[in-house]
Each structure stands twice: as structure tokens, then as C-alpha cells.
Design a protein that fits this description.
193 residues, mainly alpha, 2 domains, two-stranded antiparallel sheet, 74% helix, rod-shaped, OPA3-like protein, coiled coil, OPA3-like
Length: 193
């Protein structure tokens, strides 16, 4: 999304920069004070560029820089101001896009935080339920049933070996005379007429 918008914005600003530069030139021709300001900007920029190029190429920088003629100075200043405006608008577009992106990221982060809080709350509720069920199981194990304590496998909650638990359940069923699920006890059946 940012790439097409940035390209479109840059193209728009470039197309807007040329008419702006020509308007600055015509404005400079009509207003002498504005022309003087523009010419001074252009001459300062020209001196800076020439001295920079001399330093880069290793030439003497103490030599005087010839000033631009007024028409070239107006043209250079118009181009410079046009480029500055294009750069300023492009920079503003980039800043706005970064702010939009950071807001989007902040919303995503807030949503993830809310989901994490909901999961923590659900985890706390499940922990509380397990604790309540454990207390209820302990109460039931301590209470007598028909004069006997309720059976509790010794490995309940501590062993992950399912075979040992199922053997204990089978032993208990045989001792109590209870048939396994999905099987019928033949001794309990009464004939129906």
C-alpha cells in the first residue's frame, strides 16, 4: 500500500514542482525584493557547491567564486525552491505513513494484549475449578459409603501410566462384583414373561 501511494505522491509532486518553479520566476520578475532574496539564495548555494567540488577534487578553495548572472541565479533559486518543496512534501508523506503504520502496530499489540489477558483469565478460572474439584474429590473420599470409604487409586494424579490405572479399576470391579461398561452381568438378569 505504501509503495503505490509514495510513487503516486512523488510523481504528483514532481509534476507540481515545474509549474511552481516557473511561477517563482515570474514572481521574481515582478517583485524586486523577492528577486533580491532569491538571487542571494542562489548565489550562496552556488558558492557552497563550487567550494565543495573544489575540496572533493583537491583544488584550491581560496580562489574567488564567480557569481552567477541574475537570470541564471533566478533559474537556480527557482529550481532549488521547487526541489525543496518536493522534498518537504515527500518527507511529510513518509512521516504520515510511518505514523499510520505505528498506529496500526499499536492496535495489533493492544488486541494481542487483550487476547493474552483473556487467556490468562481463562487459565485462572480453570485452575480455580480444578482446585474446587480436587477439594470435592477429597471430601467424597473421606466420607463413608455403606460403611466403607470410597476407593481411590493410589496412582491417581501422580502416574501417567494408564495401564496401571485400568488394572486397578478391573481389580476393583471384580472385588465389588461390578461388570465393565458395555457388558451385561448375567447373574442380575431376571427372566421376563
Amino acid at each position: 500500500m505504501i509503495l503505490p501511494a509514495a510513487k503516486l505522491g512523488a510523481l504528483f509532486m514532481k509534476s507540481l514542482g515545474k509549474p511552481l518553479a516557473s511561477r517563482l520566476k515570474s514572481h521574481a520578475a515582478k517583485h524586486p525584493r523577492f528577486r533580491e532574496i532569491i538571487v542571494n539564495i542562489a548565489q550562496s548555494n552556488h558558492r557552497f557547491q563550487v567550494n565543495l567540488q573544489r575540496r572533493i577534487y583537491g583544488h584550491d578553495t581560496g580562489v574567488a567564486v564567480h557569481p552567477l548572472n541574475p537570470e541564471k541565479a533566478v533559474q537556480a533559486a527557482s529550481d532549488l525552491l521547487g526541489e525543496f518543496i518536493i522534498f518537504a512534501v515527500g518527507g511529510t508523506i513518509v512521516i504520515l505513513e510511518v505514523q499510520r503504520s505505528s498506529r496500526s502496530e499499536a492496535l495489533k499489540e493492544a488486541k494481542m494484549r487483550a487476547e493474552l489477558d483473556a487467556l490468562r483469565e481463562r487459565d485462572n478460572c480453570a485452575f480455580y475449578e480444578i482446585k474446587q474439584l480436587t477439594l470435592r474429590i477429597e471430601e467424597l473420599e473421606k466420607s463413608p459409603k455403606n460403611g466403607r470409604a470410597i476407593w481411590r487409586p493410589s496412582s491417581f494424579g501422580t502416574s501417567s501410566n494408564i495401564k496401571d490405572i485400568s488394572k486397578e479399576i478391573q481389580t476393583l470391579r471384580q472385588r465389588e462384583g461390578v461388570s465393565p461398561p458395555n457388558q451385561t452381568n448375567t447373574t442380575d438378569k431376571t427372566p421376563q414373561n
